[in-house]
Amino acid sequence: MARLDSLLRIFTEGRYVALLNGRHDPIREEAIAEMQARYDHLAGVPTNETY
Q1: Tens of pLDDT along 6-48?
Q2: Taking Cα atoms as reference points, which of 30, 50, 23 lies closest to residue 11?
Q3: How do the residues of the chain divide into helix, strand and coil, expressed in percent and rounded to 5?
Q4: Do the Cβ atoms of 18 and 28 come closer than 8 Å?
Q5: According to the 3-state scheme, what is the secondary structure of the chain?
Q6: What is the pTM assigned to this prediction?
Q7: CB 21: neighbour CB atoms within 10 A?
Q8: In whole angstroms, what is the distance from residue 19 CA to residue 48 CA?
Q9: CA dihedral (15, 20, 21, 22) positive or negative
Q10: How far apart are the C-alpha atoms of 39 and 36, rounded to whole Å?
């Protein structure tokens, strides 16, 4: 879980740097969303589903 947290932090920081430089990478956004979902699952965070 610590490794996933570290990767998530690195990808998020890279995303902010890219945005500051005027670039947007949808593949990076998808990877961050997937890693965040995995981290939340491992941490026991309930899903954000509306019924």
Answers
A1: 888 888 899 999 999 999 889 889 988 998 898 889 889 888 7
A2: 30
A3: 75, 0, 25
A4: yes
A5: CHHHHHHHHHHHHHHHHHHHCCCCCHHHHHHHHHHHHHHHHHHCCCCCCCC
A6: 0.69
A7: 7
A8: 26
A9: positive
A10: 5
